[in-house]
Write a structure and sequence with these properties.
With 449 residues, this protein is mainly α. It has one domain (23-372). It contains 19 helices and four strands. It has helices at residues 2-18, 27-41, 44-53, 59-81, 91-102, 109-128, 131-138, 141-162, 184-199, 205-220, 242-245, 253-281, 292-309, 320-325, 331-344, 356-370, 382-398, 401-418, 427-445; strands spanning 87-89, 166-169, 173-176, 314-316. The strands form two sheets. The chain has a two-stranded antiparallel sheet. Strands 2-3 form a two-stranded antiparallel sheet. α8 (141-162) packs antiparallel against α16. The longest helix has 29 residues, at 253-281. Keywords: Cell membrane, Membrane, Transmembrane, Transmembrane helix, Transport.
Length: 449
C-alpha cells in the first residue's frame, strides 16, 4: 500500500510539474523519449574532449565539464521552459574555437575561453532583456518552416556521413560510401529496423532500432565491448575558472571579433534549432513558441556556467528530435536526459558502444520526419520560395545551421521588397539583414583552419 501511494504521489508531482495530460503524453513515453535523446547525443561526451583537446585543453577535464554543462542545461530546460529539448556543448562552436581561433589565429585556449565567457554574459543579457524572444517572434512563418526542414536534412546528412553511407570525394565533394566496410551495414540494418517498425506504427521504434544495432554490433564484434563498467569522473580542475582568470585579455581588439562570432553563431544556432524542434513537436502556436523566453534563458545560463567550468558554448541539440519523434513533449524528457548524463559520469565506459553507426539511423529517420515541414511553405510565391530554399540547402551544404539561416535572412527582405510586399517585412528582419552581412564578412576575413 505504501509503495502504491508513493507511486501515485510521484505521478501526481510529475503531472503538476510537466502537465503531461495537457500535452497528451505519459510518464513512460517521456522517459523513453529522454533515453532516446540521450543515446542519440551521448557522443558529445567523447567528441567534445577530442576537439578541445586539439586546442591544448585537458581531455579528462573537458569530459567532466561536458557532462556537467549538459546536466545543468537539461535541468533548466525541464523546469524553466518545460520543453523536451536537451542542451549540451555545441559541435560547431567547439570546432570554431579549436581550429579557427586557437590553431588558426594563434590565440591560446585560456585567452579564447575568456572570449567565450564574455559572449556568454552578453548572451544572457540579451535573453534577460527579451531581445532574443523578440527576434524569434519576428521571423516569418515560411522561414521558420524552412529552418525546421533544413535542420532535418542537415542532421540526416550528418547521419549518412557518420554511418559511412556518404564519404568525402576529391572530385565531387561527396560520394557513396563503400559497402565493403562492415560497420556501414550496422547503419543500413538500423535504418531498415526503424523504418519498418515506424511503418508498423510500433511505439519507440527509434529507440528499439538503436538497441538492436548496438546488440548486433556487439555480437558480431563490430563494436568493441567495454573493458570495464564503472570509472570515476576526471577532475575539472585544469579548466575550471580559467576564463575568469584571463578576462583582461579580452581587451585585445583581436578578441572582439571572436566574441562577436561566438555571440552571433550561438544566438542563431540555438534559435534555429529551437524553432525546428518546436515545429516537429507541435509546440508552435500562431507562429510563436510558448515560454520561448524561458527556453532561451535556460540556454543562456548553461552557456554561462559552461564557460566558467571550461567548455565552449552550449546549444539546444538537434538530436532532441529523436526523443520528440518517439513521443517526447514536455520537460520530463529533458529531465530524463539530464539524469542520464549524471549516470554517464560513473558509467562512461559503457558509452563507447554507442558508435556513430548506431546513432546514424536515428538521425536519418528523424531527418525524414522534420523534412515534412516543406509541405507548408508557400512555394508558389517566388519571393518566399528562394529564401526558403537557400535556408534549407545552405545548412547541409555549408555544414552549418547559422549559414543556412543567413542565406535566407539576406534574401527575404530584398525579394519581398522587389515583389511589392515591403510592408510585410518588419524592422527586425531588416536589422538582421545588416547583422548577417557583418557576420559573413567577419567570418570571411578570419584565418581559415
Amino acid at each position: 500500500m505504501l509503495k502504491v501511494n508513493r507511486a501515485t504521489a510521484t505521478t501526481g508531482f510529475l503531472e503538476r510539474t510537466f502537465h503531461l495530460s495537457e500535452q497528451h503524453t505519459t510518464v513512460r513515453q517521456e522517459l523513453l523519449a529522454g533515453l532516446t535523446t540521450f543515446v542519440s547525443m551521448a557522443y558529445i561526451l567523447f567528441v567534445n574532449p577530442s576537439i578541445l583537446g586539439a586546442a591544448g585543453m585537458d581531455k579528462g577535464a573537458v569530459f567532466t565539464v561536458t557532462a556537467l554543462s549538459a546536466i545543468l542545461g537539461c535541468l533548466l530546460m525541464a523546469f524553466l521552459a518545460n520543453y523536451p529539448i536537451a542542451i549540451a556543448p555545441g559541435l560547431g562552436d567547439n570546432a570554431f574555437f579549436t581550429y579557427s581561433v586557437v590553431l588558426g589565429m594563434g590565440i591560446p585556449w585560456e585567452k579564447a575561453m575568456a572570449g567565450v565567457f564574455v559572449a556568454a554574459v552578453l548572451f544572457t543579457l540579451l535573453s534577460f532583456l527579451k531581445v532574443r524572444e523578440v527576434v524569434i517572434d519576428a521571423i516569418p512563418s515560411d522561414l521558420k518552416l524552412a529552418m525546421a526542414a533544413g535542420i532535418g536534412i542537415f542532421i540526416a546528412f550528418v547521419g549518412l556521413q557518420g554511418g559511412g553511407l556518404i564519404v568525402a570525394s576529391k572530385t565531387s565533394l561527396v560520394e557513396i560510401g563503400s559497402f565493403t566496410v562492415p560497420t556501414t551495414w550496422l547503419t543500413i540494418f538500423g535504418i531498415f529496423v526503424i523504418a519498418i517498425l515506424m511503418a508498423m506504427r510500433v511505439p519507440g521504434s527509434i529507440f528499439i532500432g538503436l538497441v538492436a544495432s548496438t546488440i548486433l554490433g556487439l555480437v558480431t564484434g563490430l563494436i568493441k565491448a567495454p573493458s570495464s563498467l564503472i570509472s570515476m569522473a576526471p577532475s575539472m580542475g585544469p579548466t575550471f575558472g580559467v576564463s575568469l582568470k584571463n578576462l583582461p585579455s579580452v581587451a585585445d581588439p583581436q578578441m572582439w571579433a571572436v566574441v562577436l562570432i561566438f555571440l552571433l553563431v550561438a544566438f542563431f544556432d540555438t534559435a534555429g534549432t529551437l524553432i525546428g524542434l518546436a515545429q516537429q513537436a507541435g509546440i508552435m502556436k500562431n507562429n510563436k513558441m510558448p515560454r520561448i523566453g524561458r527556453a532561451l534563458m535556460s540556454d543562456s545560463l548553461s552557456m554561462l556556467a559552461g564557460s566558467v567550468m571550461g567548455t565552449t558554448p552550449t546549444a539546444a541539440y538537434v538530436e532532441s528530435s529523436a526523443g520528440i519523434a518517439v513521443g517526447g513533449r514536455t520537460g520530463l524528457t529533458a529531465l530524463t536526459t539530464g539524469v542520464l548524463f549524471v549516470f554517464s559520469l560513473m558509467f562512461s565506459p559503457l558509452l563507447t558502444v554507442v558508435t556513430s553507426q548506431v546513432t546514424a539511423p536515428a538521425l536519418i529517420i528523424v531527418g525524414v520526419l522534420m523534412a515534412s515541414a516543406l509541405k507548408n511553405i508557400h512555394w508558389d510565391q517566388f519571393e518566399v520560395a528562394v529564401p526558403a530554399f537557400l535556408t534549407i540547402v545552405g545548412m547541409p551544404l555549408t555544414y552549418n545551421i547559422s549559414y543556412g539561416i543567413a542565406f535566407g535572412f539576406l534574401t527575404y527582405p530584398i525579394l519581398m521588397t522587389a515583389a511589392g510586399r515591403r510592408k510585410e517585412v518588419n524592422g527586425v528582419m531588416w536589422g538582421l539583414l545588416i547583422v548577417f552581412i557583418v557576420l559573413l564578412y567577419i567570418l570571411n576575413i578570419l584565418p581559415k583552419s
